[in-house]
Design brief:
heterotrimer, A alpha+beta (733), B mainly alpha (298), C mainly alpha (503), B: 298 residues, mainly alpha, 10 helices, 73% helix, C: 503 residues, two-stranded antiparallel ribbon, 15 helices, 6 strands, 25% helix
Chain lengths: 733, 298, 503
C-alpha cells in the first residue's frame, strides 16, 4: 500500500489539503466550495453519469468531480467560464427532453434540473424534444407516479433502491436513446416487487418519480390524543421546514400531525414500538427512563424479614461498580441528550427532535417522554423525517442544536475524554463534522489512511478484519463508543479494521488535526486512548491466535468457537433433577437463566444459557445500551432495560428471554408489570455460578471451550472430575 | 451421579467409623447385664448417632430447597447422604443389640428402614448407570416435564407438513389452499393424484397421528423402530420423489416421538424409586423421633 | 425443508416456569410424602387416643404379666406426682412399681448396693421365666464380693457354676454330719436284709427318704397301725422342717428328713416285754417308763397269776455293760414287785439295747435303789437341710436314681458321713450347655435365690380388680405409688378373685 498521504491541491485558487483518496467534489465541499450535481447524492456511490459536476483540472477533458479523486498539486477550476458553459450546455441538453414544468416542479417547485436550468439561465432549449418517450406514464403503483419522460437517467433511484434500501427492484434497461429505468424485468411498477418505500421517489431529482396522493398516511389517531393534521402552509411557516417542498408536504398531509399535550401527559413510553419522530415546536418535555428513583432489579431484592435473614446465607454482592473507574455514567438514548445513570431525567426544549432511531430504524422507544409544560409538537413519519434530514436548513438546525447542547455531554460521557477542558470543547464545537451513513455503508476500510477519529452518535457499527478465511467480526460499537484512534495513534497511520454502518448511523467526525491537538494538549486523554488501543489490539491478536490454534471441527458448527464460557452438563452424571435450574431461578428472583435443552457435544449437553460470545450479536441494536459488557467477561443486562426484545431476537442461541417483572412503586404508566430481558450473567455477584454450585452430582460446569474441549479434540478425553480440578474451568473462587 | 474416586474419602471415613463402632460394641455387649440393647447408655449413644445420620440424610431434600445458600455444597451433602445413610443401618443394629425390633413400633421401623436402605442402594445404582444409558439411547432428549408440550409441538409440526403437501388441513379436515395456510410462505403444491394423496393421508390418519397424539406407543405399529423404518420406506415407494423430503421429516418426527417415549420410561425408572424411598424415609424419621422420645420416657 | 435443530429452537420451545408447575409426577410425589408419614402418625395417634401404649412395647410381655393386657401404666407409671396428677414425664418402671404387687425381701443386709428389680428381672423379652436372672446379675457382686463392713463371709470370686463355684460347704473342710442317730447306710442297703415279718427286703433310698411328692403316701413297708407321716410331723422329736425358702407350691420343697415314724418303725420295733406285742411309744424316756408301768399294771391286774412266772435270765445286751458278778435272780412276790422287776427288765432292754441301737444315751448313775435312772437322749441333730442357701429340688431329679448322685450312701457306715453329692456330681450335667443333648442349665438362679424368702410377710392383698385390668379407668389408689414400700403386700400366691377385695 502506498503510504498514507495528505495531498494539497488548488481549487479555485484556494489551496486545500485533504487526505489522499478524497474526491474533488468532497475536497471542494469540505472547503466550502460548492459544485452543482445532479446524479450525485451524498449517501449513494457516485457514478458520474450526468456530468454536471464537471470541473477543469487542466486535462484535455473536464472531469466529473464526484468520482475523480483529487491528486497532489492538482489545479482545479470549478467555476470558470468554460466550465460554466459546459454545464449550461449539459443542462440544456437535458432540458430538451424534459417535460418542463415536470410534475415535481409543479407540486413542490424543487425539480433539481429545472432549478439548475434557472440558475444557469437556460431558456428554451435549442434541441428538439424527443417525440415519443421511451415508456408511457406508469401509474400502476399505488403511491408513486412514474413519468419516464422526465427521467434523466441519473440512476439515483437505482442506487437508492439497491444501495440504500437493498430492494434491488430498479435497474437500467435498454441502451442508447431507448435506455430507461425499469422495475424488475420491465414490469409495471405496481406489478413488480417494489415495496413502495419511496426511496426512489425521494432520490429522484426530477419529476420522474413523484408521490401520488396516497391513502393511509394518517397519524391523526395517536395513542392517547388525536392530532390535527397540519396544513402545508402552516408547516412551511416553521423555520425548520424552510426549503422543504410545499407540494411534498401537501401530498404527505397525513404524515405530519400536530399534537398538543398538557403538562404531565405522556407523549411516548419506553419500550413501545413506533415509527414516528417528534419535533418539539413549543414547550419542554421531561425525558427519562421509568422512574427517577428506582431501577427495576431483576436479580431479586431482599424484602421481608425472612428473606433478609436468608440473604445472609446468599453471598451476593449488590450492584458493584467499583471495578469501573468512572465518575458518572450515562444511558444513551434516542434523543439529543443522554441520561445520567444515577438520575436518568433530562429535559428537551423547543427545536429538539427525538425519536429518530425509532422512526428511521424502527427501534423501540428508548425512554419515556412526558410533557413538562404545555407542549406542541409535530409527530412525523419516516418519509417526512427523511426529507427533513436531507433538508439543509433542518440539518443545519439539528447540527447547531447538537453542537450547542449535546456535543459537550456526549464528549464528556465518553470516559476517555473526561478530562477535556471547556475551552477545548468550545474549540471543537464548530470543527467537528456530523456525518450520516446509511445501512451497509462502509465508514472506513481496512488499510485506508487514517484521517479522522469518530464518535458514534446514533446507530450501530460493525468493526471487522479481513482475513483469508473471511471476515472476522471484532466488535460492535454503539452510541458512546468511538473508533479510529488506533490508526491515528499508530506510526503507519492506516486503518486496522473496516468499520461498516449496520443501520442509519450518525458519527461525530473529529479531523486529524484536531485529534492531534487534543492528544497533544491532554496527555491524560492520550494515555487512556493508547491504553484502550493496546487492549483492543491485544484482544484482536488473541482472537486470531485462538482461531489459528483450534482445529476446525464439527465443534465449530454449533458456534461453540464463538463462546467464551459455556455451561455444559455432563450427561453421564446428570440425573435430570433440575437442581441447577432451580438454583438459577433462586438466585435470580424466580426466573431461570438456563434451560436444560439444547444441542449436544459428545456426552455434554450445551445448556441454553448465555455463552459470553466473542462476537456478541445480542448487543447490536439495544436502544438504551443496557446489554453490555463492563470490564469482565460476563454479558450483563443493566436494570434500565426497556424490554424491547431486540437482544432476545438477535441472540442466535435463544439465551436471552423477556419476562414480566412487577413495576416499581410509583412508576409512571398504566402497567403493573414491566418486561425486561434476562440472561445468564455468570452470577457475577456470587462467588461462583449458582448452577455449578448447586448441582448435587458435579455435573454442571462452566468451561472455556477451547481449553476444555481442546484436550478432547486433541485426543485426550477428560475424565469426569470435579469441576474445580479440570483445566479450563471457569473457577472464579 | 457417578460414584467415583471423589467418594473415596467418604468411603474410608464410613468404614473406619463403622469399625470403631463395632470395636466398641464387642466389649459393651459382653459386659452389659441384660445384654446389649437400646436402653443402655451406649445403646442410647448408638441410637443418637444412628438417628443423627438418618436425620442428616433426610435433610438433603431441605438443603436442595435452598440451593444458593452457602451451607456446604449440595454435592457434599449428597455424598454425606449416601455414606452416612448407609452406615446408619448397621449402627442402628448396634443400637438395638442386633434385634429386629420386638415391639410393634420398632418392628415396623426396622421393616421400613430396611426398605428405605434397600431402595436407596437400588436407587444409587440406578442413578449411577442409567444416565449413561439415557445419554446414549435418547439423543433427542428434552426436559421430562415438558415432554407433553413437545409432543403436541411435534404433532402440530407433522400436521402442518402434511397439510402443506396434501392441501388438506389435518386437524380440521378442511381442504384449503396450502399456500395460504402456510402463512404466505410460497410452497410448491405438489400435484398428486387422488389415490396417492390418500395413501399419505391414510397412513397419517391411521398410523402416524394416533401415535403422535398419545403418550407411549400402545397399539401403534410404528412405535417399533424397525417396523417404522419399513413402513416409511414403503411409503416412499408409493409417493413421488418430490415429497420424499417431507416423508423424511415425518420419519424424523416419528423417531423423535419414539425417543421421547423411551425417555419417559427411563426417566421414570431413574426417579421412580424415590416414590418409595422418600416418603418412607420421612415416615421413618417421624417414627424414629417418636420412638426416641417414648423410649426414653419408658 | 428439512427439520432444523438449532440451539435456539430447542431452547425456546420450553416454558420457563416448567419446574414450578405442579404436574402429575410432582403432585403424586408430594402426596405420597404427606400421606405415608401421616399414615404412620395416624396409626400412633389412634393408639394414643385409646390410651394404648402397645406399639411402644419393646418386646412381648412374659406370660405371667400378660394379665395386664394393654394397660401399660400398670407398671409404667410416672414417678413424679402432684397429688394424684402425674406431672413427671418419665415412665420408667421403678422398683416401687414392682413392689406394689410383689414382695422382694432383701438379700443381704451387708450388700454394698441393691440392684434394681429390672436389672435382673427383664420384662418385654417374651415368654420366659421372669424369675430367671442371668448369671451376670449375680456375678456383678459375687464376682468380686465386697461388703459394707467387715469381710465377706462367702467366697469372693464366683463367676459361674462350671469352674469357679466352690465345693458345697458341708463337703468342704471335711465337715461331718452332726447327727447323733446311729445309722449305717451300708447295712440297710445290703441285699439280704430282713424286713418286717422277717421277709427279705432290698431297701431303696426312697423307702426311707421320701421325695416331697410322696410324703403324704403310706410307707411302703409300713404297718397299718403305723401312724402316717405328715408333712408337718406332730412328733415333737422330729426335727422341725424349716419354712420353705421359696414360695410354696413351686415344687422345690425340701426332702423331708426320715423320721422314726415314717421310716424306721416298721423294722425297728420297740418291743419291751414278751407279754406284749406292741412297742413302746417312740418318745421321751419318762413317757416310755410311764407307758411300760401302765401296761404292766394293767396286765398284772388282768393276769394276777403272772406274778409267779419264773424269772428270765439276764440278757447280754448288745453293747451294754456285762456285769461279771454273779447275778441274783430276782423273784417277784407281789404285783408291785412284779411290775417293778419287769419294768426294770424292760428298761434294761430298751435303755441298753434297743434305744441305744440308734440313739446316744447318757446314763445317769444308779440311785440307792440300784435302779438305773432314766437316760438322757442326746439331741438327734438331724440336719434337715444341708444347703440352706440353695433350693435343690429332688422333684426335678426324680427320674434319676438316688444312688447315682449319692454315691457314698451305699458304702457309708458312719452317721458322720456327709452323704450329699459333691458339686462335681452336679457339674456333670449342669455345665451350662442346655442346647446340647444330655446337658442341663446351670444358671445361678437354678439353685440360689436372691430374695430371702424366709423373711416374707403375710397376708397378701391383691392389688388389681378385673374391671380395672380389662379397661375401666385405673383405680386411683393403684396408680399412686406410695413413698414407702407397702408393708401389707405379700407375695402373689394365687390370683385371688375373691369378692372381698372387689371395688
Amino acid at each position: 500500500m502506498a503510504p498514507p498521504k495528505e495531498i494539497t491541491l488548488t481549487i479555485d485558487e484556494q489551496k486545500v489539503t485533504v487526505p489522499a483518496g478524497t474526491t474533488i467534489f468532497d475536497a471542494a465541499r469540505m472547503n466550502g466550495i460548492p459544485i452543482p450535481t445532479l446524479c450525485h447524492q451524498q449517501n449513494e456511490t457516485p457514478v458520474g453519469v450526468c456530468r454536471v459536476c464537471v470541473v477543469d483540472v487542466g486535462a484535455r477533458v473536464y472531469t466529473a468531480a464526484c468520482i475523480r479523486e483529487a491528486e497532489n498539486n492538482m489545479v482545479v477550476k470549478t467555476n470558470s467560464d468554460k466550465v460554466r458553459g459546459a454545464r449550461k450546455t449539459l443542462v440544456e441538453l437535458l432540458m430538451a427532453d424534459h417535460p418542463s414544468p415536470c410534475a415535481r416542479e409543479q407540486q413542490s417547485g424543487d425539480c433539481e434540473l429545472e432549478t439548475l436550468a434557472k440558475s444557469y439561465s437556460v431558456g428554451t432549449p435549442r434541441f428538439a424534444k424527443r417525440l415519443t418517450p421511451s415508456h408511457q406514464k406508469d401509474e400502476s403503483s399505488l403511491s408513486i407516479m412514474v413519468d419516464h419522460s422526465a427521467c434523466i437517467l441519473c440512476d439515483r433511484c437505482i442506487r437508492g433502491c439497491s444501495e440504500i434500501r437493498h430492494n434491488f427492484v430498479i435497474a437500467r434497461q435498454g441502451k442508447g436513446y431507448a435506455a430507461a429505468i425499469s422495475f424488475d424485468a420491465d414490469m409495471p411498477m405496481g406489478s413488480s416487487s417494489c415495496v413502495s418505500c419511496g426511496e426512489c421517489m425521494v432520490s429522484c431529482p426530477t419529476g420522474a418519480l413523484t408521490n401520488k396522493k396516497v391513502l393511509g398516511q394518517k397519524l391523526e389517531q395517536g395513542a392517547t390524543l388525536s392530532g390535527i393534521s397540519v396544513e402545508a402552509q402552516e408547516l412551511l411557516e416553521l423555520p425548520v421546514f424552510k426549503g422543504v417542498s410545499g407540494t411534498f408536504l401537501e401530498l404527505n398531509k397525513g404524515a405530519v400531525v400536530k399534537r398538543t399535550y398538557r403538562k404531565g401527559e405522556v407523549i411516548c413510553h419506553e419500550g413501545d414500538y413506533g415509527s414516528t419522530a417528534f419535533y418539539l415546536v413549543e414547550g419542554s418535555v421531561d425525558i427519562f427512563i421509568s422512574t427517577p428513583r428506582a431501577h427495576v432489579d431483576t436479580e431479586g431484592s431482599q424484602e421481608g424479614f425472612l428473606s433478609k435473614l436468608a440473604s445472609k446465607l446468599k453471598p451476593r454482592k449488590e450492584h458493584q461498580r467499583e471495578e469501573e473507574n468512572t465518575g458518572r455514567k450515562f444511558i444513551y438514548i434516542d434523543a439529543p441528550v443522554d441520561l445520567e445513570y444515577d438520575h436518568p431525567v433530562a429535559k428537551l426544549h423547543a427545536g429538539d427532535l427525538f425519536g429518530e432511531m425509532t422512526c428511521m430504524n424502527f427501534y423501540p422507544r428508548s425512554a419515556t417522554v412526558v410533557a413538562a409544560e404545555d407542549v406542541v409538537c409535530l409527530e412525523m413519519l419516516r418519509n417526512v423525517l427523511d426529507v427533513l434530514q436531507k433538508n439543509k436548513t433542518f440539518r443545519a438546525k439539528l447540527d447547531a442544536n447538537y453542537r450547542a447542547r449535546a456535543l459537550e455531554t456526549h464528549l464528556k460521557s465518553v470516559p476517555v475524554f473526561a478530562s477535556l477542558t471547556q475551552d477545548f470543547i468550545d474549540h471543537l464545537r464548530d470543527r467537528v463534522e456530523l456525518q450520516r451513513f446509511a445501512p451497509g455503508q462502509v465508514i472506513c476500510h481496512q488499510g485506508d489512511p487514517a484521517d479522522s477519529f469518530y464518535l458514534v452518535r446514533i446507530g450501530f457499527i460493525k468493526v471487522s478484519e479481513d482475513h483469508p478465511g473471511g471476515e472476522l467480526v471484532l466488535s460492535y460499537l454503539a452510541r458512546g463508543n468511538y473508533f479510529g484512534e488506533i490508526g491515528l495513534l499508530s506510526d503507519e497511520g492506516r486503518r486496522t479494521a473496516t468499520c461498516t454502518a449496520l443501520d442509519h448511523v450518525e458519527v461525530v467526525k473529529i479531523h486529524r488535526e484536531d485529534f492531534r491537538e487534543m492528544v497533544g494538549r491532554f496527555p491524560q486523554v492520550r494515555a487512556s486512548l493508547e491504553a484502550v488501543a493496546r487492549d483492543r489490539i491485544e484482544e484482536n491478536r488473541s482472537r486470531m491466535h485462538n482461531l489459528q490454534s483450534m482445529p476446525v471441527d464439527d465443534f465449530l458448527k454449533q458456534g461453540l468457537m464463538d463462546a467464551q464460557s459455556l455451561l455444559v452438563l455432563d450427561l453421564d452424571r446428570c440425573t435430570r433433577c433440575d437442581q441447577c435450574v432451580k438454583a438459577c431461578a433462586d438466585a435470580h428472583d424466580g426466573i431461570t437463566r438456563l434451560i436444560r435443552d439444547g444441542l449436544r457435544f459428545e456426552n455434554y449437553l450445551v445448556a441454553t444459557s448465555c455463552r459470553q460470545c466473542r462476537d456478541p450479536l445480542c448487543m447490536v441494536g439495544c436502544p438504551v445500551g443496557s446489554i453490555r459488557r463492563r470490564n469482565s467477561l460476563e454479558v450483563i443486562i443493566e436494570d434500565w432495560c426497556v424490554g424491547c426484545g431486540l437482544c432476545a431476537n438477535n441472540c442466535p442461541y435463544g439465551n436471552i428471554n423477556l419476562h414480566e417483572f412487577p413495576a416499581p412503586a410509583g412508576s409512571v404508566g398504566h402497567k403493573a408489570t414491566v418486561k425486561k430481558a434476562t440472561s445468564c450473567n455468570l452470577c457475577y455477584d456470587h462467588p461462583e455460578p449458582s448452577c455449578v454450585y448447586a448441582c448435587p452430582h458435579d455435573a454442571a460446569h462452566r468451561i472455556n471451550p477451547p481449553e476444555f474441549f481442546g484436550q478432547m479434540l486433541g485426543g485426550k478425553k477428560i475424565e469426569a472430575v470435579p469441576y474445580s480440578m479440570a483445566p479450563g474451568m471457569m473457577d472464579r473462587r | 451421579m457417578l460414584i467415583d474416586r471423589t467418594h473415596r474419602q467418604w468411603l474410608w471415613g464410613s468404614v473406619i467409623g463403622l469399625a470403631i463402632s463395632v470395636v466398641i460394641y464387642i466389649p459393651y455387649a459382653h459386659f452389659t447385664i441384660g445384654g446389649a440393647r437400646g436402653g443402655t447408655m451406649i445403646g442410647i449413644l448408638y441410637g443418637i448417632v444412628g438417628f443423627g445420620f438418618m436425620v442428616f440424610a433426610g435433610l438433603l431434600s431441605l438443603r436442595k430447597r435452598f440451593p444458593v445458600w452457602r451451607m456446604g455444597r449440595t454435592s457434599t451433602w449428597m455424598r454425606g447422604h449416601l455414606w452416612l445413610g448407609l452406615i446408619s443401618y448397621p449402627i442402628i443394629f448396634l443400637h438395638s443389640g442386633f434385634s429386629f425390633g420386638k415391639g410393634a413400633l420398632t418392628w415396623w421401623m426396622m421393616v421400613i428402614f430396611t426398605i428405605v436402605i434397600v431402595s436407596g442402594i437400588v436407587g444409587a445404582i440406578i442413578q449411577h448407570y442409567l444416565p449413561k444409558v439415557m445419554t446414549r439411547e435418547v439423543p433427542y432428549e428434552t426436559i421430562y416435564a415438558e415432554i407433553p408440550v413437545i409432543r403436541s409441538q411435534l404433532l402440530d409440526e407433522a400436521d402442518v407438513k402434511v397439510a402443506e403437501v396434501t392441501g388438506v388441513s389435518m386437524s380440521t379436515g378442511a381442504v384449503t389452499n396450502a399456500a395460504e395456510d402456510a402463512g404466505g410462505v410460497i410452497v410448491t403444491l405438489v400435484q398428486m393424484e387422488e389415490d396417492v394423496r390418500n395413501e399419505l393421508t391414510r397412513f397419517y390418519d391411521n398410523d402416524l397421528r394416533p401415535f403422535l397424539e398419545q403418550p407411549g406407543g400402545k397399539g401403534c405399529e410404528i412405535a417399533n423402530r424397525s417396523l417404522s423404518v419399513a413402513k416409511f420406506a414403503n411409503l416412499k415407494t408409493l409417493l413421488p420423489d418430490e415429497i420424499h423430503p417431507v416423508i423424511a421429516d415425518l420419519e424424523s418426527i416419528c423417531e423423535e416421538k419414539r425417543q421421547l417415549d423411551h425417555q419417559i420410561v427411563l426417566h421414570r425408572i431413574l426417579h421412580g424409586w424415590l416414590f418409595i424411598h422418600a416418603p418412607l424415609s420421612l415416615a421413618l424419621l417421624l417414627m424414629g423421633a417418636i420412638h426416641a422420645v417414648i423410649a426414653l420416657t419408658y | 425443508m428439512a427439520r432444523k435443530r438449532t440451539a435456539k429452537s430447542l431452547g425456546q420451545r420450553h416454558d420457563f416456569h416448567y419446574f414450578q408447575r405442579w404436574e402429575r409426577w410432582r403432585l403424586l410425589r408430594a402426596g405420597l410424602m404427606a400421606a405415608l408419614p401421616a399414615l404412620a402418625l395416624i396409626w400412633l395417634v389412634v393408639y394414643a387416643v385409646r390410651r394404648n401404649a402397645e406399639p411402644y412395647s419393646s418386646g412381648p410381655l412374659s406370660s405371667v404379666h400378660s394379665f395386664t393386657g394393654k394397660r401399660c401404666d400398670t407398671c409404667h407409671t410416672p414417678a413424679l406426682k402432684a397429688g394424684f396428677i402425674s406431672v413427671g414425664f418419665r415412665k420408667h418402671v421403678s422398683d416401687q412399681a414392682c413392689l406394689s404387687c410383689h414382695q422382694a425381701p432383701a438379700h443381704q443386709t451387708l450388700q454394698t448396693f441393691t440392684p434394681t428389680c429390672a436389672s435382673c428381672h427383664t420384662e418385654h423379652v417374651g415368654s420366659q421365666h421372669l424369675r430367671q436372672a442371668q448369671d451376670e446379675d449375680c456375678v456383678q457382686c459375687h464376682g468380686d464380693l465386697k461388703v459394707k463392713s467387715g469381710s465377706p463371709h462367702f467366697q469372693t470370686a464366683i463367676y459361674n457354676f462350671d469352674a469357679q463355684h466352690p465345693e458345697f460347704a458341708p463337703l468342704r473342710n471335711n465337715a461331718r454330719d452332726p447327727g447323733t442317730i446311729k445309722l449305717n447306710h451300708a447295712v440297710h442297703m445290703r441285699s439280704g436284709l430282713l424286713g418286717p415279718n422277717s421277709q427279705p427286703v432290698q431297701m431303696q433310698c426312697q423307702d426311707c427318704h421320701r421325695p416331697p411328692a410322696e410324703q403324704g403316701e403310706p410307707w411302703k413297708y409300713g404297718q397299718a397301725r403305723v401312724v402316717e407321716a405328715t408333712l408337718h410331723s406332730q412328733d415333737p422329736h422330729n426335727p422341725a422342717m424349716p419354712a420353705e425358702p421359696v414360695r410354696p407350691g413351686t415344687g422345690r420343697a425340701y426332702m423331708a428328713a426320715p423320721t422314726y415314724l415314717s421310716a424306721c418303725q416298721s423294722c425297728h420295733a420297740l418291743q419291751f416285754d414278751s407279754h406284749f406285742d406292741e412297742s413302746v411309744p417312740h418318745d421321751k424316756p419318762e413317757v416310755v417308763h410311764a407307758f411300760i408301768v401302765s401296761r404292766l399294771t394293767e396286765y398284772i391286774k388282768k393276769h394276777p397269776e403272772a406274778v409267779n412266772e419264773p424269772p428270765r435270765p439276764m440278757r447280754i445286751m448288745f453293747g451294754g455293760t456285762v456285769s461279771r458278778e454273779p447275778q441274783t435272780v430276782k423273784i417277784a412276790h407281789n404285783a408291785d414287785e412284779w411290775i417293778k422287776l419287769r419294768t426294770e427288765d424292760a428298761e434294761n432292754l430298751l435303755w441298753h439295747k434297743t434305744c441305744q441301737q440308734c440313739h446316744s444315751l447318757k446314763y445317769i448313775q444308779t440311785d440307792q435303789n440300784g435302779l438305773a435312772g432314766l437316760p438322757e437322749v442326746a439331741q438327734s441333730n438331724i440336719k434337715p437341710v444341708w444347703l440352706p442357701n440353695s433350693v435343690f429340688s429332688h422333684y426335678a431329679h426324680v427320674s434319676i436314681d438316688c444312688k447315682s448322685c449319692h454315691t457314698r450312701s451305699l458304702t457309708s457306715q458312719e452317721t458322720s458321713d456327709v452323704l450329699i453329692p459333691s458339686i462335681r456330681t452336679c457339674q456333670e450335667c449342669h455345665n451350662g450347655e442346655p442346647t446340647k443333648m444330655g446337658q442341663a442349665q446351670n444358671g445361678c438362679f437354678l439353685c440360689h435365690q436372691y430374695h430371702n424368702w424366709k423373711q416374707r410377710t403375710e397376708p397378701f392383698t391383691p392389688a388389681h380388680t378385673l374391671q380395672e385390668l380389662r379397661g375401666a379407668n385405673p383405680s386411683p389408689s393403684h396408680s399412686l405409688l406410695p413413698s414407702q414400700p407397702q408393708t401389707s403386700a405379700a407375695g402373689i400366691q394365687f390370683l385371688n378373685l375373691s369378692s372381698s377385695n372387689h371395688r
